[in-house]
Amino acid sequence: MRFTSLVIELIRARPRLIVWIAVLLQAAMWLFVALVFYRSPPGTLATLLAFGREYQVGTDLGPPLPVWLADIAYRAAGGHMFGVYVLAELCEIATFITLYYLSRAVVGSQQAVLAVLLTMTVLAFSSSALDFGPLVLARPLWALLLLHSWQIIGQRRGNAWFAWSIEAGLLLLTTPSAIFLLLLLVVFALSTVGGRRTLLALDPLFALIVVAVLALPYAAWLMRAETLVLPTLPAVTDLNARAVHAAWLLGGLVLGAAAIPALTFLNTGLFAGKGEEPPIIYRPPVEPLARNFVYFFALAPALGAVLISGLLGLDSVVGGAGVVLVMSGLAVVVAAGDLIAMRRARMLRMVWAAAVVAPAVGVVLAVLLLPWTGTGEIATSMPARAISDFFDESFARRTNHRLRAVAGETQLASLIALHSGRPHLFVDADPARTPWMNQTKFAETGGVVVWRASDTAGTPPPDILKRFPGIVPEVPRAFEWLVTGRQQLLRIGWAIVRPKGT
């Protein structure tokens, strides 16, 4: 009697249930990591929230939608970062569920599960799970665009145009790379007979009007801000260095997707047991148009993003690895054939689970162990709530006024701006970044200026002293990290600028 594992049977009988279980468990894992091991937001999330508090149509952080949504989630959670972390994980869940429906339309329900599980290993290593921002929000929007693009081109479903137009407009309000991604959709449509026929109808015109209406406010801000300029192309002498940089970016994408070839290799006949009859995951034949659609959007976004980023000398690929690699798992499943034999299913499950869990384990180990090496700081170990409470209360006691603004080192000032009072962030080193505040307004409302203290006297850095020549430094305040280990306490120098009339 042949034994088939419960997971394989569930993939065959309840594929959607397997997807939901895997996706929700991953989301719960990251939320647990954030609640237990994060005392301050990761990356630039604190700055994003400080900008979101102002509800500007546009900032140097990019289009406004991620900034606004982050602030709404933060307020909805009562001023707790948990709301933003939940928002980030909802984006992750929406990405995978949308990918499942797209994969189901191409390879059927059973193999769609494999496509989602493979993609989960890619996104686990190649993109942040909790650092909400344009790169995180763009993932579900791009997945939805791909789903409805296939419904329009491959399934001739004209009623998908309205959803497509809304998603395209929201993507333009999310990331500057939206134009590049939308151009890829146009290129594919023009390259196919069905796509060209679809574009000749009236529906694309109405969709274009909806997209234009959604993107109009941000487009007007771009024109007023005079930021619509052509990128500077590199000189001929720099092309060699840019090519090397592009190769490194491509290598980073390949490394982020390394779990897929590893799982594929482990599922080859080399690891099959003698006389083993592996269970088969079946699919109906994939039509040529669907195959071309999957291969195009698995390769063109990644290669195009690497080319553009390498040519312009950008630090990361345009659109983010999580966007350009979102179709990689489905592409491998399509290439695998109509029948996929699951050899050594138990080993495959263990390797897959290790690939999905490894980034979270790495974060936990870094928080717990790196402080004992004394080699660097863990930004998420800063006590954000204690920092913001101390400076808010200190300003209120000294001036009898509520803290209205904070300036100085942007990272520290952004943490203070997270306080329930939500003071304005003032980037004094580059005032154009924060048009809602300038030196004159800051002098009127008063505020706190903060910096990393390099001595026990709390002497301000020369650049801060130059911008605030009249400040009198206070005794630096020391804060403990989540895990102090061998590193020094976090010492913050500060000074109060009193409001006018006090």
Automatic annotation (TrEMBL):
Glycosyltransferase RgtA/B/C/D-like domain location: 63-221
Keyword Transmembrane helix: yes
Topology versus the membrane: Multi-pass membrane protein
Pfam families linked to this entry: PMT_2
UniProt keyword annotation of Iron present: no
Domain of life: Bacteria
InterPro entries (UniProt xref): LipidA_mod_glycosyltrf_83, RgtA/B/C-like
Signal peptide start-end: none
Gene Ontology BP terms: lipopolysaccharide biosynthetic process
Gene Ontology CC annotation, any one: plasma membrane
GO MF annotation, one: pentosyltransferase activity
Compartment list: Cell membrane
Membrane-crossing segments per the record: 17-38, 82-102, 114-137, 170-193, 205-223, 243-272, 293-312, 318-339, 351-372
Keyword tags: Cell membrane, Glycosyltransferase, Membrane, Transferase, Transmembrane, Transmembrane helix
Name of the molecule in the record: Glycosyltransferase RgtA/B/C/D-like domain-containing protein
Species: Bradyrhizobium amphicarpaeae
